[in-house]
Amino acid sequence: MHPQRERLHNELHARPSIYFSEPAHLYHYAFFADVQTHAAMLAQLAETTGIACNADAAQQILTFEGMVLKWERHTEFSTLTLMVPKAVGSEAWCAPPTWLTKVVEAQQAALMNATLVLVENVDTWLGSAEAYGFNDPAGSQVGGGDATVWSDFHLDSAGFNRLLMLNEGLNAFRLGRMVRRLLEIETYRMMASLSLPLAKELALELEGYEVELGELSDRNAEQEEANPRPLLTALSQLSARLERSGARSRQRFSATEAYARIVFSRIEELREARVDHCPRLGTFILRRFRPTVHYCAAIHERQESLAESAARLNDLLRTRAQVEIEEQNMSILNSLDERASSQLKIQKAVEGLSIIVISYYVFSLFKLGLESLEALGVSVQPHTAAAVLGPLGVLIVGLLAWRIWRVKQH
């Protein structure tokens, strides 16, 4: 059996929902937390509830005092969801338990989303969304008409985004999954929107980069004969800043795209239908959320396009520089060729002079030899000396010339 088979198979059950019956309050929090922050939150939960939390797991469902608590660890955020059955005669919107408030306040700096879902049934229903404090809410029938959901998407005094659900036909399993979809829409919507401030900041940076790149392009077009090195230096600095900007934002924009797809998918899974004259929940969310996603995608595309333009201009400048280097190399080679030709001519002249000088010395030696013989009393006739020493001298000079030629050949 493959060592990962069981783990991969159990991914089907990795994110179970909380199954419950109405009426109930669900308090949901999402924290933009790293591993250390997540571990600290679990430690505080364990200390508060008295139930051990498995820090190595991706999620855990804990039941105590009639409440159900679920925590989940995602790639870059963590969630806490507490289901509290609604007491008879209690207020519509109740504050969370004190211990949960303390846990959340300890992680307040990382809090991304706080959603309070009130699930009512037909018996506890007050008759209208306005009776629960909503003014001009958005609402939809979901789950094929088995439930209705309202929200005005305003934060209350406690910082909660409130959702009201009237369950008319969902069993505990479908109800748990439906509430999970609603919570995921809110959580992933907020996580996707994290890149909006970054996109606005980058928009100003990119405007300056575009102006700078345009100026460099104009200089490249107008100064064809100029030295490209200053342009290459300026362009390299611009490319470095663009790469730093891309490295800082690429992961965030990719996460936004992934989170947005989940939001769109979860809205489709609601299977919405209109309620009275209220705008549908999905329509209300997408009308404001989709432009955010498109704006971030446009900034990301603009950033990538600018980097590609800088890379193309860099290639053009490097081509110019390479052509200039090749022309310089050709000029150097021509100069070396001319120098070698001059040296060859000088060498030939030296070789000719060397043969003449050697011939002079050879015949001078012959002359000294003849004079020495005459001093010793040996008389040699001039025609005899010429007949013997002439060919010998010519032979010696010829051998020297032939030897020089052989050395040059090798």
Could you write a compact summary of the structure shown?
Pfam families: DUF3422. The protein contains 8 helices and 9 strands. The chain is an alpha+beta fold and 410 residues long.
Describe this structure in words.
There is one protein chain. The radius of gyration is 46 Å and the shape is rod-shaped. The protein has helices at residues 5-9, 35-49, 98-106, 172-192, 195-222, 229-269, 281-375, 382-409; strands at 24-31, 59-64, 67-73, 78-85, 111-120, 138-142, 147-151, 161-167, 273-274. It starts with a helix and ends with a helix. The protein is of the alpha+beta class and 410 residues long. The protein is built from eight helices and nine strands. The longest helix is centred in the last third of the chain and has 95 residues, at 281-375. The model has no long low-confidence stretch (mean pLDDT 85). The chain has a nine-stranded mixed sheet with strand order 2-3-4-1-5-8-7-6-9, covered by helices on one side. The protein folds into three domains: 16-192, no CATH class; 197-268 and 280-322, no CATH class; 353-409. Helix 4 (172-192) runs antiparallel to helix 6. Helices cover 59% and strands 14% of the residues.
